[in-house]
Amino acid sequence: MGRRPRDAQGDRRGLTRQVAGPTDKDKDERRPATKLVQGGRRPEWTGDPRLGGSVVNPPVWRASTILYDNMADLAARGHATHDKLYYGRRGTPTVWALADALTDMEPGAEGTLLYPSGVAANSAALLALLAPGDHLLMVDSAYEPTRAFCDGLLARYGVTTTYYDPLVGAGIAELITPQTRLIFLESPGSLTFEVQDVPTITRVARERGVLTMLDNTWATPLLFPALAHGVDVTMMSLTKYVGGHSDAMMGSLTATKAVWPRLRSAAYQLGQAVSPDDCALMLRGLRTLDVRMQRHGKNGLVVADWLAARPEVARVLHPGREDDPGHQIWSRDFGGTSGLFGFTLKGADDAGRARFIDALSLFGIGFSWGGYESLVVPGNPIRTATAWNDPDPLVRLSIGLEDPADLIADLERGFAAL
Ligand SMILES: Cc1ncc(COP(=O)(O)O)c(C=O)c1O
Q1: Could you tell me if 341 and 318 are in contact, meaning their C-beta atoms sit under 8 angstroms apart?
Q2: Are 324 and 207 part of one and the same domain?
Q3: 315 and 278: one domain?
Q4: Residue 49, pLDDT score
């Protein structure tokens, strides 16, 4: 599914236009906003020479069975094919178009695999890259189900996990043992927003022959091209900003050439398939990711700055703000901010936090984030390597595309109820 098309024959906009297309090198040098628009629209997926034209979006190819012309055709496709119709589980052009477009967004990537959810993508990567007896270094601020997989199935399969301080930096070297095979990062942490020093950690990992994997859901490659920062495998919950409309679930893994075959082989064995209809939704979201992300980021900072000035707020956890402990590394490494951040309610208890949240009407109460609509949830960080000592209750906001003045008015109602 979705290996980089090294053999692509240009990208003519329609099969009928016989003009030389840009080379793969030209495509690599395109800017991210252009890649978001062009990615995955290979002419063989958007047109048919017999029809004499092409469509803008790769159509939805729904399939379980693929039909072969004859026995010779069946034999010729073989088991090893990808980007060639073989069997529905191996994908159709709609699926490959999304995988291709995501690969395009990550300079240095060999290919992208798609999974039914972000959690499925994380679990598949950990299973593919670790074996009994191996040691995993997992960031202490990781999304809770990621921890659950390490403490559950992974432990049962004989992989040991050590949680580490998200701010460990070069100190990660001291935690690497001869059994360590993988360092997992999530930056910023999606509940507590610590920014990790990814380039330092990946440099140490490479020196020690250890792989790195990053949950890049918060930033997406638009704000943080992970492989360019030394990461070997980058994961995203496409459910969030890529989908952007809170109506589909999916996860992705994008990897370097060295790691790609291991992930692909495990994906084929695990047999998780994604729906072409959901891929079409994800592709639709991807096309507007740049403009949405700019608006999420801008609205988020307006709301975060307003919150920081409120007497009821103890702390705003947003790396895009200058007073945030992660701001320096964030400004060095990231191309912008998304709209997800947290804050703590000064001196409040859980009941006060509940009153605050219940009084909001524009913010939906719900898990997930990255959609066009604003969301709020209480946050209760789970830590084992470090302590989360903040006595004030945490609230997490996903800022949508509404007018921030209306969001602020809504939050004012929350403070009144508090
Ligand atoms: C940081 C992070 N990673 C992974 C996931 C899992 O994604 P999904 O909900 O698509 O399984 C989430 C979901 O909230 C998340 O916040």
Answers
A1: yes
A2: no
A3: no
A4: 84
| Predicted local distance difference test score (pLDDT) of residue 77 | 81
Structural domains counted in the chain:
2
358: containing domain: 289-417
Last residue of a domain, one of 247, 265, 287: 287
Mean pLDDT, the chain, rounded, equals: 93
Ligand 1 pocket member 294 (CB < 6 A)? no
Look at residue 17 and tell me if it is in a domain: no
Please say which residue of 287, 311, 334 terminates a domain: 287
CA dihedral 165, 170, 174, 175 (to 10 degrees): 40
What is the reported pLDDT for 260? Answer: 97
Q: What is the pLDDT of residue 82?
A: 67
CA-wise closest residue to 180 among 231, 143, 133: 133
Interval 21-38 mean pLDDT: 82
**Same-domain status, 279 and 295:** no
pLDDT tens-digit series, residues 323-356: 999 999 999 999 999 999 999 999 999 999 999 9
220 & 347 share domain: no
In a domain, 3, yes or no: no
Residue 75 lies in a domain: yes
Q: H-helix or E-strand containing 29?
A: helix 24-29
Compute the distance from residue 9 Cα to the ligand 1 centre, in Å: 36
Measure the CA–CA gap between 200 and 230, rounded to whole angstroms. Answer: 9
pLDDT at 16 over 90: no
Separation of first and last alpha carbons in the chain: 50
Q: Which ligand 1 atom lies nearest to the CA of residue 367?
A: 14
Pocket of ligand 1 contains residue 289 by CB under 6 Å? no
What is the rounded distance in angstroms from the CA atom of residue 193 to the CA atom of residue 352?
A: 23
DSSP at 3: B
* Residue 7 pLDDT greater than 60, yes or no: no
| CATH number of the domain that residue 194 is part of | 3.40.640.10
Same domain, yes or no: 187 and 326: no
Do 129 and 277 form a contact (C-beta atoms < 8 A)? no
The residue whose CA has the least distance to atom 14 of ligand 1 is 368
Are 154 and 271 part of one and the same domain? yes
Task: State how far the Cα of 16 lies from the Cα of 53, in Å rounded to an integer.
Answer: 6
Considering the candidates 83, 140, 215, 290, report the single residue annotated as catalytic: 215
With 0-12 CB in 10 A as exposed, 13-18 as middle and 19+ as buried, what is 365? exposed
